Every structure is written in C-alpha cells, then in structure tokens.
Amino acid sequence: MLDELKTAWKTYDKKIERSRLLSDRLIVSMIREKSQSRLTRVKRNYLMGVGYMLFWFVLGLIVIFSNPFDFKRTTEYLPIAVYCICVFVLGGAMLKTTFQLRNVKVADSNLQEALLSITEILKKYNRPGKFLGLTLKILLSTAVLFPLSFLQRKIENEGLTRGILETLLAMSISGVLIIIAHKAGAFREKNSTKFDEYQRELQELRTLSEELNEE
Amino acid sequence: MKDEFIVMINEHRGILYKICNLYCDDEEDRKDLFQEMVLQLWKSYPGFRSQSSKSTWMYRIALNTSITRLRKEKREPSRRSLMDADFEIPDFNPGPDQHEELALLRNAIDQLNEIEKALVMLYLEEKSYEEISDITGITKTNVGVKLNRIKLKLEKIINKNCHVR
C-alpha cells in the first residue's frame, strides 16, 4: 500500500516539475519582507522593550538633574532614584537578552535543536525571573511612593496632620489609578494577552520536542 | 550571490511546495509559509558551506521554519497583492487525469502530527536514515523505529478511508 503511495508522491513531483518557475522579482520581494517567525517576533519585542525603558530612564534622569520639583534634600530624590534604578535594571536585562538572542540561529539547526532553542526562549520570554518580577513591582511601588518626596516640605509648610493627609491622598490617587489600570487590563494588554497564547504554543512545541526524543 | 540563490530556489521549489502543502490548510497560509521559508533560507545562505547537500540543508531550514513558526499571524496587504498576482503553489489534489491515490495520501497525511508529517515526507522523498537523522536530530535507530510506527499508522488510516469509500 505505501509503495503505491510512493508512486502517487512521484505523480505530485511531476506536477511540480511542470509548474511555472518563480520570477526573480518575486523571490527578491520575498527576501526583502520582514520575517514573521516566532524568534524574530520575540527579538523585536525585546528591542522595543529596551527602547521603552531607555525613554523612561532618560526621563527619570532629566527629573533628577533639572530638578523641576525643586527638591532641596537628598531624601526627596529617593523615590525617583529608586525608579531610575528599577528602569535601568529592567532595560539592562532586556538588552542582555537581546544580545543573547542575536546569537541564536534556529534555522540552521536540526529540528530537535531548533525546537529546544525555541522552547527555551519562549519559556524565558513568558516568565521573567523572580528578580525582574520584583524589580517591576518596586517600579510600580515608586509611582505610589513618589508623593513621599514632598512629605517633609508639606509638613514644614502646612503642619503635620495636613501634610500627612495630603501626601496620603496623593499616594491613594496613584494607587487607585494603578488598580484601575490593572483592572481595565492595561498590564494584561502588554504582558498577558499574548501570554496564554504563547503558553499554549510553548506547550505544543514541548510536545513536539518530546515526540522527537521518544524512543 | 542573489542570482545563485534564485536559481537554487527554483531548482528545489518542490521541497518548499511540498512542505507548504503538508503544513497548511489554505492557500493564503501556504503562501505565507513559502515566503517565510524563502526568507529564512536567504538569511542562512551565506553560512551554507556545502557540508551537507543543498536539498538536506533546505529541508532542515524549511521544516524548522514551518514547525516553529507563528501560526496566527496575518499577512500584510502589501505583501498579499504581489504574492497573489505572481505565484501559485501546485496543490496535492489530483487533476482529472491523475491518480486518486494522491488524494488518499493527502487525507492520510493530514491525520498525522507535525513531526510524523516531516518524517513521512522524508521517507516518501526516499531520503536515507542518515539524512533524516541529520535533518531532524533523531538518531538513525530511532528514525527506523518511528518510521515503522508511522507506516503502520498510515496503513491503518488508508485502509479505514478505503473501507469508508
């Protein structure tokens, strides 16, 4: 039965031989397109992440050096300094991964190696390490803690109770805004909408990789 | 280098057509995959040093690309117009004068998983166990074991389909 099917396969070969050659123009247009591969997409996302973090880092530095809030004490700089450190750590981690990914060449490997590389990359992409997760939490916390920069000045100008109340109010507003954004899916939009999809694909690829290893 | 590459793609276009047909259900998806495979081949072309045959090298890259690609991406409209105008991938469906077994084969292969599809294709292309091992990374012994298992599975599917007909 299978040998007859080999004959049928050869029939398809003949059909292909009779098919029109691809024009030079078409092939050139194909190699000029952007890749839609999974690896390229991950690389692109990391690179965009680096750019995004760089933007916010520079903005933080501008705030520190141009001092638009008229900070007078070193402690007042603390939240914005923590913010800058967090953004720097996140951006640095993304940059490091971007460089690591540049050396990954999936296409040239055999199928098994390609599947292993891709699953490793996706695993890392899906689950940033505990350290980076913590950094991200600290970063969000600095948004809430930022009004603390003005606490000392407020107490001096408006008294203890009013100063504390106003600072707490500002912190609550920041906190509520973050909670609303979270509930509305602002963070999910960036990190988790595709997360489930990637997880599913990662699982599919793992299964394929296991299938190759299976005796 | 570009001219050599274009000649190579045309010489071995059958490999790409077959993989597109095995891994994609609709024409648009087939064209997307074809384009991605050509792109990946082009990117890897400078590193190709004839250690393996051109066809083995092409199978490896084309299969890697098709199995590890993002499946849910949609093609950009700009790309679609050019591809649709100049390009047609011959499908498995037999013409009126052709063997019905081709359709039978297609239906049976459709029921295999992605790894099995790759292995059965390499078997039908009469690749040696060594080449299959080189392309997939499976040991030669395991290639034999797997192929026997897939052949049995295919026979079962084909017999069942024949019985239904």
Automatic annotation (TrEMBL), chain A:
The chain crosses the membrane at residues 46-65, 77-95, 131-151, 163-181. Keywords: Coiled coil, Membrane, Transmembrane, Transmembrane helix. Residues 188-215 form a coiled coil. It comes from the Bacteria. This is Uncharacterized protein. It comes from Arcticibacter pallidicorallinus.
From TrEMBL, chain B:
It comes from the Bacteria. Transmembrane segments: none annotated. One of its GO terms (biological process) is DNA-templated transcription initiation. Keywords: Sigma factor, Transcription, Transcription regulation. GO terms for molecular function: DNA binding; sigma factor activity. Gene3D superfamilies: 1.10.1740.10, Winged helix-like DNA-binding domain superfamily/Winged helix DNA-binding domain. Residues 8-75 form the RNA polymerase sigma-70 region domain. InterPro entries: RNA_pol_sigma-70-like, RNA_pol_sigma-70_dom, RNA_pol_sigma70_r2, RNA_pol_sigma70_r4_t2, RNA_pol_sigma_r2, RNA_pol_sigma_r3/r4-like, WH-like_DNA-bd_sf. Residues 104-154 form the RNA polymerase sigma factor 70 region 4 type domain. Signal peptide: none annotated. Pfam families: Sigma70_r2 (PF04542), Sigma70_r4_2 (PF08281). Belongs to the sigma-70 factor family. ECF subfamily. PANTHER family: RNA POLYMERASE ECF-TYPE SIGMA FACTO, RNA POLYMERASE ECF-TYPE SIGMA FACTOR. This is RNA polymerase sigma-70 factor (ECF subfamily).
